[in-house]
Amino acid sequence: MQDNRTPPDRSPLGRQSVVALAVLTALLMLVGFLWLPMAQGDFTVRGLWDTICRAAGVPSQWAGNSAARTGHVATNVVLDRAMAHAAPAAAVGRGATLALNCTMCHGAQGMSASNAPNLAGQYPEVVIKQLQDYKTGKRGSPIMETLSRNLSERDIADLAAYYASLPKARTAPTTYDENLPALVRVGDPLRNVAPCISCHGGVDQKFGAPWLEGMPHAYLTSQLRAFREGTRRNDSEAQMRNMARAMTDQEIEEVSNFYARKNSAAEGR
Q1: Cβ pair 214, 118 in contact under 8 A
Q2: Which CATH number do you get for residue 200?
Q3: DSSP class per residue in 152-175
Q4: More exposed terminus of the chain, fewer Cβ within 10 Å: N or C?
Q5: Can you name the residues that pair with 188 across neighbouring β-strands?
Q6: Which residues partner with 205 through β-bridges?
């Protein structure tokens, strides 16, 4: 015999659970796609895709395509591990002679008394890359472009060997034992900003990333602002531009103060 009875209504608890889940999902979407992005000072609405990528913590346009987007090749230098090999004494001596042309800005022992970068103990591949970029015009500076224009590859390698042989005076590597600024220690994942110490020494050093401990404060702030504004563009795959673009003036000041602090402390002794 066929049962024509109307099935009972669903459980009120079940309906309430579905409604609660829908409300929770809507709230989480509002937080992830609106409230958290808008809490950042550099938030701009460029479309749904940018909003989704920002909420997920990934770039909307991958750095690998930066050259195609801008029509600009950041650098012609291909980093090779051989650049970091210990140089013979003859190369260091020849580099010391060539460095006499650099002392006015970078100091007699590679420690600047002006706002030029300290070069004492700098990784050799860093010096090689920057000199090559100045020589080819990938990094702009009227003085450095002029000085590097006539340097041969051997000259550049010898200069790098000399500066790498000098002790890193006034500096010591950063460790987690110190009271680090947030961007130095952990970065900001919500803005896709990596921690400084993951590349720039102390805890870890990415091949080709410069040693920053004890650098002049004015130099650090000027370079971070240049990366942020895109006036310095010789960073491979726009790595530093992507980091600095999200930084506020206050964060640039905090990071620069942190890395310059040991230089200032030593000068005050």
Answers
A1: yes
A2: 1.10.760.10
A3: -HHHHHHHHHHHHHS--TT-----
A4: N
A5: 193
A6: 200
